[in-house]
Design goal:
Layout lengths: L12 H8 L6 E4 L6 H9 L3 E6 L5 H11 L3 E5 L5 H7 L5 E7 L4 H5 L24 H7 L2 H12 L4 H14 L5 H11 L12 H11 L2 H15 E11 L2 H14 L21 E3 L8 H6 L7 E7 L19
Helix pairs in contact: 7-8, 7-10, 8-9, 11-12
The structure holds S-adenosylmethionine.
């Protein structure tokens, strides 16, 4: 990895730590270690313990630094959200006092050109958070036009999805699409910028392909469900998201666990039955202050939601039950 890529400014750091409300002697779980910003702040705040996971093996160097500094109080395991229950079981841990999720990609992943996440930096079209599964180049080389359009629409909220998919498939028959800038250029031709200050025209397409390849919505849902099951009463589940669909998954998950049937939001008055609530969500999403956004533009779309675990056993429900169709 390039030296300049080894950095990530944690977003909503103080807000997340306040929401977790850490206490000495308790155990917390950082599900998205990244460059360790949340873990380190928690460990410095009080004499608690932290277990951290990340599916990206490149963060191990930073995890070793924290291990040296905090000894037994810190443990890192290379793993993913859908394996949280297995990780805890293997460590012989039944209950945790708080979970933190900081969803999406880190600045290190975005800024390292050979990871292929950035539409601004030339690199191989990879986009995998770990080294397993198909690369974005492999996906694009064989996918059907209609499926590609559905991915761009469903995971990127991109209204021009059909036109972009058509352009990609046409270009692919002329020459293979293997680099980030090649793809960014094709998408920009299909979806030209209308205003100077508009986001890069490939933003949503890159986001959609990354989310699909890394199965991010299922991972997020599985992570929330595993965390809820492992939380002690009064423990907090804190989630920072960076775009509306991820936020909707978290919001609907919290609502469903609190006894509100969010799948019926549009048609029915919401019915709350507190006796069944296994989570009590904080009433609204917390956003970064202007000052943080000025210092770190990545923070501009961030939202923190958190909920407190009750003594009730969590209900079983699926991603589809909170309004998201499985899409493969
Ligand atoms: C925004 S960064 C976290 C930054 C971190 N809070 C910090 O302060 O440095 C997100 C991290 O989550 C990891 N990640 C994303 N999805 C994951 C998943 N399903 N399982 C495990 N790690 C995941 C990414 O590899 C990335 O390192």
């Amino acid at each position: 990895m390039n030296e300049e890529a080894l950095n990530h400014t944690p977003v909503l750091l103080n807000e997340v730590i306040n929401a977790i409300n850490p206490q000495s002697g308790k155990l917390y779980f950082d599900a998205t270690f990244g460059w360790g910003g949340y873990s380190e702040k928690l460990l410095d705040t009080c004499a608690c313990k932290v277990i951290a996971i990340d599916q990206d093996p490149n963060v191990k160097e930073k995890a070793s630094e924290l291990k040296k500094k905090y000894g037994d109080r810190f443990n890192f395991i290379e793993s993913k959200f859908s394996e949280i229950t297995a990780v805890l079981k293997k460590m012989g841990i039944n209950k945790v006092d708080g979970f933190m999720f900081d969803i999406g990609v880190s600045s290190m992943q975005l800024d390292t050109s050979d990871r292929g996440f950035s539409f601004n930096k030339e690199g191989p079209l990879d986009m995998r958070m770990n080294s397993s599964g198909k690369t974005a180049a492999e996906l694009i080389s064989s996918i059907q036009e209609e499926t590609l359009a559905d991915i761009i629409y469903n995971y990127g909220d991109e209204r021009k999805s059909r036109k972009i998919a058509k352009f990609i498939i046409e270009q692919r028959s002329i020459s293979p699409i293997q680099t980030t800038l090649q793809l960014a250029d094709i998408v920009s031709k299909a979806n030209p910028k209308k205003k100077f200050n508009q986001k890069h025209p490939a933003t949503k397409t890159f986001q959609a392909i990354r989310i699909y390849l890394n199965d991010e919505f299922n991972e997020l849902f599985n992570g929330l469900a595993s965390a809820e099951k492992a939380l002690n009463e009064d423990g907090r589940l804190c989630v920072v998201t960076f775009h509306s669909t991820e936020d909707r998954i978290v919001k609907n998950y919290f609502s469903k666990s609190s006894g509100v049937d969010s799948a019926n939001y549009k048609n029915l008055p919401s019915i709350k039955n507190d006796s069944q609530a296994s989570l009590i969500p904080f009433k609204k999403a917390i956003k970064p202050l202007e000052n943080e956004i000025k210092m770190n533009t990545r923070a501009r779309s961030a939202k923190l939601r958190y909920a407190t675990k009750t003594s009730s056993i969590p209900n079983n429900f699926s991603l589809e039950d909170i309004g998201f169709k499985e899409f493969h």
